[in-house]
Specification:
Length: 409
């Protein structure tokens, strides 16, 4: 059985054709889930500590060293102290190995549940929107983690579909943006497809093909059109914006003439709200902290940037910015801030003002954002969107009979 998969930056969904009809795969109560995975930290259990021969040897050498320094006290006491030292080192080592091997997927959580667990537990690892990293330059360990995570999400979809449909699902058509988010231009797009193929194979798919997302989006409109029609499909998602010019409907197969892509979407609007609306409270434009630190803090979906932000030392930054930045470095804080930015963005679609409480940064801290601020923060995206539409307008011979708008943004 073959499924169609929308592996979205923000949300993922799947469907299959059963007896000539499209059947959506259900994930719990919904037909989509947030593209996020959470791996709980493997907390080492002190009761698992055993004096293996290697550890016993370490204890002996500590005791010997203590005696040489003419430490006082009975031998039994020296030994007890030495065991305590070895045991602490052992615990630290266990914690380090656990953090390094998030490839342990047994206890992973998906979707909204993943984000909530991460925010609640304050430990563990949350990976959101792995799709937006596929086109980035990745060092081998990060590459491995990203592929495993994509594989895990695809496997979650495959197993859920297999359960629902009652037949093994081994083939997939996976949606792809016209242009992937990339730090390496076209090469980033090629890498993204290669990583997705690898992930799909790991997830147990024997056969995989790709379909441009706007072409996939066109299918729904196509099936409902009695008359043949020239259409421009506009899909503004979380990570990318895709256009396709297609001839649809009328009982004939759909023909996609051309497509255009912009590797920007709703997630960039969130970053905009975050940078313009929130970051001034953290000293953006008002402290000596370099501007790129704020971009790194706001880029919650790019692991290397997040790591870079957490590594900074803000102990000498003037108050109140120093304390706020340090609070933002705590696990989960940038994710929480980004969720508030997303909520404000959505609310500003229908209201003049919106606000958010930032008590997790500083007691009583709050921020208000107005529609004007939001438009200001969205300038870059809007400008690029306008250029994309102009390019499409120039490339098309005539004016399409209709526009089909889709995507969460
Ligand atoms: N009411 C709303 N107003 C503005 N933005 C919204 C609204 N509802 C959802 N969004 C945004 O839509 C985006 C998700 O859209 P969608 O599900 O189409 O993306 P996706 O398919 O996961 O991503 P992509 O296709 O880019 O890989 C998110 O950025 C979300 O914040
Ligand atoms: Mg999409």
């Amino acid at each position: 059985m073959r499924v169609g998969i929308d592996f979205g930056t923000s949300y993922s969904a799947a469907a299959a054709v059963v007896d000539g009809k499209v059947e959506l795969i259900r994930f719990g109560d919904a037909c989509q889930f947030r593209t996020a995975v959470f791996f709980p930290e493997q907390v080492p259990n002190p009761d698992d500590f055993r004096l293996t021969p290697a550890l016993a040897a370490q204890v002996e050498s500590i005791v010997r060293a203590a005696r040489m320094q003419q430490a006082r006290g009975p031998d039994a006491q020296l030994r007890r102290d030495a065991i305590r030292v070895v045991r602490r080192q052992w615990m630290e080592e266990q914690a380090r190995t656990a953090a390094a091997s998030i490839a342990d997927f047994q206890s992973a959580l998906f979707g909204e549940e993943a984000v909530e667990a991460y925010l609640e537990e304050g430990t563990g690892h949350l990976i959101e929107s792995p799709k937006s990293m596929l086109g980035y330059r990745l060092d081998p360990p990060v590459r491995k983690v990203i592929v495993s995570i994509a594989a895990h999400i695809l496997e979650h979809i495959r197993l859920t579909a297999t359960r629902q449909l009652g037949v093994p699902v081994r083939e997939a058509v996976i949606g792809r943006p016209v242009e992937f988010r990339s730090s390496m231009g076209v090469a980033g797009g090629a890498q993204a497809l290669e990583l997705l193929r690898e992930a799909a194979a790991m997830a147990g798919f024997d056969d995989v093909s790709f379909l441009e997302e706007p072409a996939a989006a066109a299918m729904h409109y196509h099936l409902g059109l009695a008359e043949r029609q020239d259409t421009l499909i506009v899909d503004i998602g979380g990570g990318t914006t895709d256009l396709a010019h297609a001839e649809l409907g009328g009982g004939l197969p759909p023909v996609v003439h051309r497509s255009w892509g912009l590797p920007r979407g709703g997630a960039d609007l969130d970053v905009g709200v975050n940078l313009h609306g929130f970051m001034p409270l953290f000293g953006r434009d008002a402290s000596a902290v370099p501007a790129h630190h704020y971009v790194e803090a706001a880029s919650v979906h790019i692991l290397p940037k997040q790591r870079e932000f957490r590594r900074q030392d803000y102990r000498r930054v003037e108050e109140p910015y120093g304390s706020r930045l340090r609070a933002l470095q705590r696990p989960g804080a940038t994710t929480r801030l980004n969720r508030l930015a997303e909520r404000i963005k959505i609310e500003l679609g229908g209201a003049e003002h919106s606000e958010a409480a930032l008590g997790f940064i500083e007691s009583g801290l709050a921020v208000a954002v107005g529609q004007d601020d939001f438009l200001q923060a969205s300038q870059d995206f809007l400008q690029r969107l306008r250029q994309l539409l102009e390019r499409a307008r120039a490339d098309m011979a005539g004016t399409p009979a209709s526009l089909f708008l889709t995507g969460g943004s």
